[in-house]
Design brief:
This protein has ten helices and 26 strands. The chain has helices at about 1-10, 20-30, 35-45, 55-65, 65-75, 95-100, 105-115, 305, 320-330, 360-365; strands at about 85, 120, 130, 135-140, 145, 155, 160-165, 165, 175-180, 185-190, 195-200, 205-210, 215-225, 235-240, 245, 250-255, 260-270, 270-275, 280-285, 285-290, 295-300, 315-320, 335-340, 345-355, 370-375, 380-385. The chain has a 16-stranded mixed sheet that branches. The chain has a four-stranded mixed sheet with strand order 2-25-26-23, covered by helices on one side. Helix 1 packs across helix 2.
């Protein structure tokens, strides 16, 4: 393909413009088999001959994984701000994007293998991303560990609680409260008695009454994505400490961790939000309501940025460092301590995939910012670079 050869040549010479860069991206995303035939050979000559390139599967993975980030941040010029992109996308221009598109992953791997600049005082291999695990507990103390190999379907039959059609807890559950919880470093998917599906994020829990069939009400702590079964005769209500959300059938995400503003993001349908001080709004798809100190603010968002975690991908959109590190703490089950000299005004944007080891994530973050990390005994200390 002469056109591909031409654009690749300009790309590798750091001279392609924005339009050419997107054309290159379009060709490779539509015909990934060309990566093996053309791109790997050209990249080989771009780097030191003594250092092996990532294999083809890694290169193809970079293309797929960075597609959303590139499409969002390359086209429009942005105002200057303290925003660092987790994959080193310092997009001051299209030329900078061209330099970074494939190379940042390669360079970060190379540096990790040859320099080891991330300061670690204990093995990092133990810090793995979140896995599927949850506990179902009744308010009388009975509990059961839920199977991570399936999506458990919970049903209520008479005074019995059934999981996947089998009675799992001995004894009556009449007038009992059912709680499903995930620890830090875990997530879970469960189907409620009405058929609604709930994705529970790390360090989160939902609770509902054994009378759920007549009153579809769920209490939420933490974050969850709801795919609610439509039932015009019974509304579905999600309550948090700061608000309640009423629906008939829809898909939406609520982030309600105690130390963060409550965010309600609507994917499909319609929801009504009621605050403790009796303020209310109705959201449309693509809108997000932020509840901060009982004050509601609505803005338009890309809902996938706030629901992609259900597919194993965390996205950060101008995320303050404190909030980002809270999410990392929950995802990897580690404690975080931020030095007082770290500027809290700094924000980050980017992506983190479920299988990414903690060390890889921290290295990318460290290389694209002015902060450094130290890991010791399950504690991550964050400081400014000296």
């Amino acid at each position: 393909m002469e056109r591909l050869d031409y654009i690749l040549e300009k790309y590798l010479n750091d001279s392609c413009n924005e339009q050419e860069f997107h054309e290159l991206w379009q060709i490779l995303s539509e015909k990934p088999e060309l990566i093996d035939q053309d791109l790997q050979n050209r990249l080989h000559h771009k780097f030191e001959q003594t250092t092996p390139l990532p294999n083809n599967s890694l290169i193809e993975g970079i293309v797929k994984r960075n597609r959303i980030c590139l499409e969002k941040v390359v086209p429009p010029p942005r105002q200057k701000s303290k925003i660092y992109l987790l994959y080193n996308f310092k997009l001051m221009s299209a030329a900078a994007a061209c330099l970074i598109f494939f190379f940042v992953y390669y360079l970060s791997v190379y540096k990790r293998q040859h320099e080891g600049t991330l300061h670690e005082t204990s093995p990092i291999l133990q810090y793995t991303p979140a896995t599927q695990q949850a506990t179902l507990t009744l308010n009388d103390g009975r509990f059961i560990q839920l199977d991570s190999g399936t999506t458990p379907e919970i049903s209520l039959q008479g005074d019995a609680l059934l999981i996947n059609g089998k009675e799992s807890l001995q004894g009556s559950i009449l007038n009992k409260q059912v709680t499903i919880s995930t620890p830090r470093g875990a997530y879970f998917i469960v189907t409620l008695p009405d058929g609604s599906k709930v994705h529970l994020h790390a360090a989160s829990k939902i609770s509902f009454s054994s009378a759920f069939q007549s009153a579809r009400t769920v209490q939420l702590w933490g974050e969850a994505y709801f795919d609610v079964t439509h039932d015009p005769s019974r509304k579905f209500t999600v309550k948090t400490d700061k608000q309640s959300v009423e629906v008939l059938g829809t898909r939406f995400n609520i982030g309600a961790y105690s130390n963060e503003p409550t965010q309600t993001t609507l994917v499909e349908g319609s929801v009504k939000i009621l605050t403790a001080n009796h303020k209310s709004i109705i959201l449309k798809p693509g809108e997000q309501a932020i509840n901060r100190n009982e004050n509601l603010m609505v803005k338009n968002v890309d809902s996938e940025d706030y629901t992609s975690w259900t597919q194993g991908e965390l996205r950060f959109v101008k995320e303050p460092i404190t909030i980002l590190l809270e999410k990392i703490s929950r995802w990897y089950n580690i404690d975080v301590e931020i030095d007082e000299n770290v500027p809290t005004s700094v924000t980050f944007s980017g992506q983190l995939f479920k299988e990414t080891p903690l060390k890889d994530f921290l290295y990318s973050l460290q290389e694209s910012s002015k902060i450094s990390f130290e890991l010791k005994d399950n504690k991550l200390t964050v400081k400014t670079k000296s």
